[in-house]
UniProtKB/TrEMBL annotation:
GO terms for biological process, alphabetical: negative regulation of DNA-templated transcription
Residue runs in coiled coils: none
GO MF annotation, one: DNA-binding transcription factor activity
Key word Transcription present: yes
UniProt key word Kinase: no
Record protein name field: TetR family transcriptional regulator
Keywords, comma-separated and alphabetical: DNA-binding, Transcription, Transcription regulation
SUPFAM superfamilies registered for this protein in UniProt: Homeodomain-like
Domain called HTH tetR-type: residue spans: 12-72
Protein origin, superkingdom: Bacteria
Residue ranges flagged as DNA-binding region: 35-54
InterPro entries: DesT_TetR_C, Homeodomain-like_sf, HTH-type_TetR-like_transc_reg, HTH_TetR
Record-linked Pfam families: TetR_C_46 (PF21943), TetR_N (PF00440)
Length: 209
């Protein structure tokens, strides 16, 4: 009897296995400490095959950053119904964001820590993702606060909210017992309560020098 041939795994599936392994290694050990040997072993393939599919450690890391950024953006988009009021859209977006970062802590580490500190090319991917988030939040705030006293601060508020979400996700992922819903509620209360005061004209003025 002839030997039974094992069905070859499609290239796309094999690449995703490699990226899954690479995200785990990069996310937990950091870019510098990660080795192609460890990534190949975790993916269950040979190191030459990793190099065949993704030519270098830099290219592999860049592919990880792109994939994780796309996945995070897609998760947030999928969680939002544009027909809902701005406050509900913001809540749903925050909940989707914190749920995804909690479910994919290695991917968030790659985006929030590793990509920012290992070269302009990697950081640019994260910057593009962040810019998209800022545009979305800016629109929501502008729709919720069309008054004159909010208009001048909309861009700054959006930047502050996105930055707060990033920091809070990093904290939530390293603090036992903090759920995605709790993190989202914390930021929503902080942000929307403050925006409520802005809408009502209760503005804080710095003391005169």
């Amino acid at each position: 009897m002839g030997s039974v041939k094992t069905k070859r795994m499609p290239r796309a599936v094999r690449e995703q296995q490699m990226l899954d392994a690479a995200v785990q290694i990069f996310g937990r050990r950091g870019y510098m400490a990660a080795s192609m040997d460890d990534i190949a072993e975790l993916a269950g393939v040979s190191k030459p095959l990793v190099y065949l599919y993704l030519n270098s450690k830099d290219e592999l890391f860049s592919a990880c950053v792109r994939r994780e950024a796309r996945a995070l953006i897609a998760a947030v988009r999928a969680g939002i119904d544009p027909a809902l009021p701005p406050d509900r859209q913001l809540w749903d977006g925050l909940l989707a964001f914190f749920t995804h970062t909690a479910d994919h802590p290695d991917g968030w580490s790659v985006l929030h820590v590793q990509a920012r500190t290992h070269g302009d090319a990697f950081a640019a991917e994260v910057t593009a993702m962040r810019a998209e988030a800022v545009v979305f939040v800016t629109r929501l705030i502008a729709e919720a606060a069309p008054g004159a006293h909010a208009g001048r601060d909309v861009a700054g508020l959006a930047e502050a909210l996105v930055g707060a979400a990033e920091s809070l996700a990093a904290w939530a992922n390293t603090t036992p017992g903090v759920t995605a819903r709790q993190a989202a509620a914390t930021l929503m209360n902080f942000a929307w309560a403050g925006l409520g005061g802005l809408l009502e004209g209760r503005l804080w003025s710095p003391p005169r020098a």
